[in-house]
Design brief:
The strands form 2 sheets. Strands 6-7-5-3-4-9-8 form a 7-stranded antiparallel β-sheet. A two-stranded antiparallel sheet has the order 1-2. Helix 1 runs antiparallel to helix 2 and helix 1 packs parallel to helix 3. It is globular. By secondary structure, the protein is an alpha+beta fold. The termini are far apart. A hairpin with a 7-residue loop joins strand 3 and strand 4. About 6% of the residues have low confidence. The chain has 4 helices and 9 strands.
């Protein structure tokens, strides 16, 4: 995770907006895995990003997985294909049920053609320091909220889900040469038959609304807005999480 004295992106093109999302998503995933103790906290070290102390996994394979997953998300975002990304924490086997979903809604991102990715927006870009401040506040809130969430069992796993935008021109990125596989039916959104929500490592098409979407309890994290960058983030705690505690 790179460290810079000044990290204020100029959000003057769609590609710059997506790049800013990728940077934030990488930090957020490391933060969530640390705060929710998916891996031991001793396996993380303190780095700096957005001029703020953040946590990063020490394990090369974990870092590589996150790097590849975020790159796969960025590729689909540059196609304007995604409405949301979700980090999903699953219970240990045999249930492997979704316990928590961390939603990053990109539904308000602009949609541009592939030839306009580097075309400057007509409006003036936002103040240079605006977005990093919001990133810092969001990472800090993720750390604070962790203490108020019900604890997770040991040996949880996690996946990254990509939810497709509606539209006949949006095709699920499935195939032997892509890193995506179809998500479990319970994590698929309502949409066109034959699609699934994209899932890395561990989601792309949509059928009927999934039983594991929405959660039993929803906790807002933050709305981030700076020029063309407009994202909402929240946490969903699934029914299976509370059943795990009662069992």
């Amino acid at each position: 995770m790179a460290t810079h004295a000044a990290e204020a992106p100029v959000l003057d093109t769609y590609q710059a907006v997506v790049s800013a999302l990728s940077d934030f998503l990488t930090v957020a995933i490391h933060t969530i895995l640390h705060e929710r103790e998916v891996y031991p906290r001793t396996s993380f070290f303190t780095a700096r990003k957005f001029n703020y102390p953040v946590r990063q996994s020490r394990h090369p394979k974990v870092c590589k997985w996150i790097q590849d997953a975020v790159a796969a998300v960025e590729s689909e975002m540059l196609k304007c294909a995604l409405s949301a990304v979700a980090l999903v924490i699953h219970a240990p086997p045999p249930s492997s049920a979704p316990l928590e979903r961390y939603l990053f809604s990109t539904a308000a991102f602009p949609s541009v053609s592939s030839s306009e990715l580097l075309t400057p927006f007509t409006d003036n870009p936002p103040p240079a320091g605006d977005l990093p401040e919001q990133f810092r506040a969001t990472i800090a809130r993720l750390s604070t909220l962790s203490s108020s969430l019900s604890p997770l069992p040991s040996d949880c796993s996690f996946t990254l889900i990509a939810e497709l935008r509606d539209g006949e021109d949006v095709q699920p990125p499935l195939g032997p040469t892509t890193p995506w596989i179809a998500a479990e039916p319970g994590l698929q959104k309502q949409g066109r038959s034959g699609e699934a929500a994209g899932k890395m490592g561990g989601g792309a098409g949509r059928t009927n609304i999934g039983k594991d979407l929405g959660g039993t309890k929803t906790t807002p994290v933050r709305n981030l807005e700076s020029g063309a960058f407009a994202m909402e983030m929240w946490i969903e705690e699934g029914k299976a999480k509370f059943e795990e505690h009662m069992s």
